[in-house]
């Protein structure tokens, strides 16, 4: 009997040992659990930080960067600006124009003018790569004012004279507002073609900005909202794969109006230089355009005064009523708010006004000769 009891006691001990092991196999001391949570949180934060950090730009002319092939000037802050000259020689020109390219473009995307008109009127036009685009050095501290000063530097170093004309398209059109603010004394006239709107300009009544904002594709509403409220997430938002990013960056077909789609074949020539446009990186070009363009501005364009009170020059705004990239509603309000601007609304036109046959001549004649 004693032997039986010893066997039962031994079996009970083994069972208790197994039960104790089962009870302790998934138990961590509270201190260890906290350490694991901290490590996991630090890993998640490190991943998130890396995800939102853009890659450094590949600067043209640097050992690992693209080559420099265009003529360039050195700006007041030491950066280089690449440019391209068009038309008659500037020393023989009657009119000197600086053209500001748009989003995802470069100096090669200048306004198209007929050779006959260029020769007849004596037009010299210079286009340039905005900071970070093409072969111009990036400016990671880009501001509203900096591009206007870049334009002034370019005009001075190319000896365009005390006054010159400026024409900007799309995002370049938005930059013309900054020229009217910061260097109006240098302008002989200005043109904004399909200029990008900042829906947070305080001069817009809520109903106007809301209507224009809501006319965008849903994915573009989110893209500009991120650029405005969380600029530090702009790079991540437009590179992640979880949500649709900017349709303009993605070149989604839904952003093109019927007329824009008809004009797309005219842009096939861009394939020759398209690889150069963003060769220094998307952040220094597209993403900074969004951060600055849709960020908080230190001035409201609707507070600007007429830079030509004696009609010694003129300002023109051209927009298509079927523009699906930049809705027309806010432009109409600006035209009413600033009656000194000559507003031209083109029925049936989309965003790609400069690509339409004869549009460049029409725009320039209105600027230089007052023809409508």
Q: Which topology does CATH recognise?
A: Rossmann fold
Number of separate helices: 14
- Strand numbers in spatial order across the main sheet: 1-2-4-3-5-6-7-8
Percent of residues in beta strands? 5-15%
**Would you tell me the overall average pLDDT?**
90
Radius of gyration: 29 Å
What is the chain-wise order of helices and strands? Answer: HHEEEHEHEHEHHHHHHHEHEH
CATH top level class name: Alpha Beta
CATH homologous superfamily heading: Alpha/Beta hydrolase fold, catalytic domain
Largest sheet: 8 strands, mixed
Secondary structure: number of strands: 8
- Overall number of structural domains: 1
Sum up the overall morphology in one term. globular
Explain what you see.
The protein has about 375 residues and is an alpha/beta fold. The protein has a single domain (about 70-370), classed as Rossmann fold. The chain is about 40% helix and about 15% strand. It has 14 helices and 8 strands. The chain has helices at about 1-25, 30-50, 115-120, 145-155, 170-180, 205-215, 220-230, 235, 245-250, 260-265, 275, 285-295, 330-335, 360-370; strands at about 70-75, 80-85, 95-100, 125-130, 165-170, 185-195, 315-320, 340-345. Strands 1-2-4-3-5-6-7-8 form an 8-stranded mixed beta sheet, sandwiched between helices. Strand 7, helix 13 and strand 8 (about 340-345) form a beta-alpha-beta unit. Helix 4 (about 145-155) crosses helix 5. The longest helix has 23 residues, at about 1-25. The chain is globular and about 85 Å long.
